[in-house]
What does this fold into?
Amino acid sequence: VGETLEQAACRELLEETGLRIVRFLQKEPVLEEFWMERKGEQVRKKILFFFAEVEGKVVLQKEEVAHAEWFPLQKAIGLVSHVEGRATLHLAADVVEALVFPGNIPFEGY
It folds into this structure.
């Protein structure tokens, strides 16, 4: 389509949730990789996450998103069942903490 990764993230978020990105919170996306089973075969899944400030009213695209809920970040970390997802949320917590408390060194011992 000729769009950048950031443009694709903005478009996908708007299409699937109705939310708009106000600003990205870091320059590079976070890559999450893991193996999963699809149709009886192991496949490698790669997902790019952009941490961002968003605005708007949530309107879910039913074909893509069955259910969504907001959680405080620490609670979300506890709810995620796979280690890769928890690691991504810990990185998000570090990014938010650095924005709220500039100059603090993020805790790396997750």
Remarks:
- DSSP finds three helices and four strands in the chain.
- The two ends are 38 Å apart (CA to CA).
- Strands lie at 20-24, 30-38, 41-49, 52-55.
- The mean pLDDT is 89.
